[in-house]
Amino acid sequence: MMKTYNQIAEFGQKLMSLGEIENVLELIAGEAKKLVNTERCSIFIVDKEDGILWTKLSDGIGRIVISLDSGIVGDTYQKQSAQIVNDPYGDARFLQVIDKKSGYTTKNIITVPIFDSKREIIGIIELLNKSRTDFTNEDLETLTFFANYISGSLELVLMSKK
Fold this sequence. Notes:
alpha+beta
């Protein structure tokens, strides 16, 4: 686990050198995929004013916009807690329409909220299709630590966009 924490610390140095939100989100998504060995990652940003969660980029399908209470990501936002869903097609919250649109097949999902300094959710990390196995509580611990680590940087970047 110490190796993972060192990897995240090195990543933080890279993150702080970026300014543009697109670059920050891309770097966060790439690192999250490496940490738990997944195929895809989306970073959903919370827009309370419009009542939506949106991605600037989403591996393979471009921008996604959903309501704050839609899908597993919306449920993560509503409950303010991480989710592991190792059988998405058996879960009523799963938005199958996104898979249908993209031609992608989601096998498993993990979502982790990103809290700002006021303990409000500013974003949600969603990872899809862990290589060879289902998501575990260890993945959840790693991604929760990661989300806490990147939250300050993401908050600063989002504040500078307003």
